[in-house]
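dude i think i finally got it to work??
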Amino acid sequence: QRQLVESGGGSVQPGGSLTLSCVASGYSFSTYSMAWFRQAPGQERVRVAATDSGDSTVYADSVKGRFTISKDRAKNTLYLQMNSLTPEDTAMYYCVAQLYGMSYWGQGTQVTVSS
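look at this
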């Protein structure tokens, strides 16, 4: 059964760091592009980082230089290392697998940045 299970969210002070993980069962990183999206209250979901099957990466301007997307093929796990967090990074973060225009979503993990 294919599923995406995120973990690693939580509460952190401004300037802190968190690493999100997504175990992508049944999704081959050699085939699927993977991404992290986030959705803040009252706002639309936006993509913050993505990586394709060739390991190319792309970042939203708002997180460039602070966030790093990576994957461990042996563990079939996607990561999002988040540094220098600000209150504007507060959101539900989703792991997404994409192929041929289809998107498959995890259940999300909450990140709250507050002093």
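The mean pLDDT is 97.
im so relieved honestly
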